[in-house]
Amino acid sequence: MTLAVVVIFILVLIALGASYLKFYRPSLDTDVPLDVETTTPSEVTTDPTDSNAVVTGEDTETADDTKDIEAGAFTRDTESVNFLVVGRDAASWNTDVIMIVNFNMREGSLSVMQLPRDTYIEADSRIHGRINTVMKSMRSRAYDEDSTLSDEELLRAGMAGMCELLEKSLCIQIDGYAHVDLAGFRGIVDAIGGVYMDVPYAMQYSDPDQDLYINLQPGPQTLSGSEAEMFVRFRSDYVQADIGRIDAQKIFLTALFKQLKTNLTVTTVPQIVEQVVKYVTTDVPLADIIIYAKELLGVDMNNVSMMTLYGTATQTETGAWYYIMNRASTLDMINTYFNVYNSPITDEIFDRTQAFTDEESAIFTSIYNASPDDPAVEVKPDIMTGEEIDNGDLDIALH
Q1: What's the mean pLDDT when you consider all of the chain?
Q2: Does the N terminus or the C terminus of the chain have fewer Cβ atoms within 10 A?
């Protein structure tokens, strides 16, 4: 849902014209924001005469001896950029849509990793629980430090803090963020004349407490803004609940992206601009957005890759549900699709504080540390292209 708004924003900027930026290239941070210090490996025994030393043949060195990876080992690819994209309901500061998007302009590819909102994460006593509360916690922290900050400044502080946490734990350099108030989602979809897609099954659900009423019939149709919201928020009949909802969003985003490449008109642009300006907050400079937009229009559906963070949903003894990331699978996915350096992210530096698990929970650690093919890792969705999803190859299990 959030990516849809960002895509619209990008295409609108192109429609407004940007030929004067023909030779402009975005300026990216080439510093390495990751903790790349690695411990020197040792296969020796401790010298009984010195509790702080280890014996290596004739050499002796302290057990906590470390070395820094040379700066040149991590060189930035400035043609590949990562963005954090989040969406929240207007009535809450929880970001229930969380995605990391990589755009590789050299290869003409777009990769989208969706993070389930119940993903477990802990950084300190304040950030300890579901990932959809991180931005809210960062925003509250900024307010405690300076209560004179405006609402927009608090929002930006919250987003910057969330970016920094994910950047350091997942070892993904994040070049910018986009925050969307989902209250504008319906208006934006309506502004482009709706989204034509094939609804794969009947969707019926009612929740008066959320003022949420869903009633969609299956089959090809053009979804209005309110109907599109029904589609992307539905989750009650999915076997995997929120994972099913995330997969449904892949279907919608694919249909939207396909339609937008041909459906922007002089008539719809002003309406879209009005909605986007009101509901999108980003730290990406306008000139950079225009450049990315120009390149994005050339991306083929076969070069769009959509994926979900690997892991398993599990219940604690207190009855709370969390989604636990699988470390090995996620590291491989990040190196394949989101690593903007010339060197791979190693297991030693990846999530070095183990922010995505609770080390005191045997259930959490068994999922987190499992091998990728272990049955404990239940969510191992195929990484699908936009073309495959558009062809109806994404099946979502129903009860």
Answers
A1: 83
A2: C
pLDDT at 174 over 90: yes
**Distance, CA of 9 to CA of 21 (rounded, Å):** 17
pLDDT of 214 above 90: yes
For residue 384, what are the β-bridge partners? Answer: 306
Q: Express each pLDDT in 261-285 by its tens digit.
A: 766 665 666 667 677 777 788 998 8
Task: Look at residue 182 in the predicted model and tell me its pLDDT.
Answer: 73
pTM of the shown model: 0.84
Q: CB of 234 within 8 A of CB of 196?
A: no
The total number of residues shown for the chain amounts to 399
- From CA 302, how far away is CA 387, in angstroms rounded? 5
Predicted confidence (pLDDT) per residue in 191-206, tens digit: 788 999 999 999 999 9
12, 175, 196, 288 from 27: Cα distances, Å? 22, 10, 37, 8
Q: Could you report the per-residue pLDDT of 372-383, keeping only the tens digit for each?
A: 888 888 776 679
Q: How far apart are CA 309 and CA 114, in angstroms?
A: 6
Q: What is the pLDDT of residue 251?
A: 95
Q: What HEC string does the chain produce?
A: CHHHHHHHHHHHHHHHCCHHHCCCCCCCCCCCCCCCEEECCCCCCECCCCCCEEEECCEEEECCCEEECCHHHCCECCCEEEEEEEEECCCCCCCCEEEEEEEECCCCEEEEEECCCCEEEECCCCCEEEHHHHHHHHHHHHHHHCCCCCHHHHHHHHHHHHHHHHHHHHCCCCCEEEEEEHHHHHHHHHHCCCEEEEECCCEEEEEHHHCEEEEECCEEEEECHHHHHHHHHCCCCECCCHHHHHHHHHHHHHHHHHHHHHHCCCCHHHHHHHHHHHHEEECCCHHHHHHHHHHHCCCCHHHEEEEECCEEEEECCCCCEEEEECHHHHHHHHHHHCCCECCCCCCCCCCCCCCCCCCCCHHHHHHHCCCCCCCCCCECCCCEEHHHHHCCCCCCCEC
245: Cα separation from own chain's centroid: 15
CA distance 214 to 326: 33
CA distance 53 to 67: 16
Q: Scanning the structure block, which residue is given the tokens 């719809």?
A: 268
Unique residue bearing structure tokens 């995997």? 240
